Amino acid sequence: MSRKIYVLHTDTGSILTKMIKLYTKNPHNHVSIVIDDQFNKVYSFGRKNPRNPFVGGFVQENIRGRLFRNADCAIYCVTITEKQFQIINGKIMEMEEHKDDYRYNLIGLVAVMLNREIDRKNAFFCSHFVATLLNESGIKMKNQKPLSLVTPHDIKESVSLKLIYEGKLSSYFQNYYQEYQADRVEVI
Prior knowledge:
By secondary structure, this protein is an alpha+beta fold. The chain has helices spanning 15-24, 82-97, 106-114, 126-136, 152-156, 169-184, and strands at 2-11, 30-34, 42-49, 52-60, 72-81, 103-104, 123-124, 162-168.
C-alpha cells in the first residue's frame, strides 16, 4: 500500500521570513511536512505561539490560521510506502509526546549562512527537521550535504517530490484542493 505525504513551502511575510528572504533570495523560506490529505496534520519547527516569533520549537501548524492566512506557498507531493509513512509518523508522534524537550535551532540557522555544520541535540530549524524525517524514511535529497545544512530550497530539489500547486495557500483550499482530491478518486 502506498501513501502520499506533502512538503509545504511557505512565505508568511513575517519579519523573520523577510530577513531570511533577503539572504536566500528564494520565494519560500519555511517548510513543513504534511501527513494527511486534508492538511490538518502539518508539522515543523517554528513559532510555538503565532503571535510571538521569538519562542520556537516543534509545532503542529494551523495553516488555516492567522499566521498563514496570506501566505504564498508551493506544495510538493511524494508517494511513499506504508513502512516509510510509519517511520515518519512514529518520529512525529515521539516528538509530539516530548515536544518540550525540543527547541528551535537559531544557532543552526546562523551556521547554515556560514556553511558550518552544527548539529545540536533536540534542536532543529524547519528544513533540518523535514530533511531529517525524509532521510530517515529513505527519501534522499538531491545533494548530499549534512542534514543540519539543508535549506528549504534543497528540499524542493529532491528528485522524489512533485510540485502540485504554487500560489496563495488560501486559494489552494478554496479551489485547487477540491479539484486535486477529485482527480485522486479512482473510478470503478
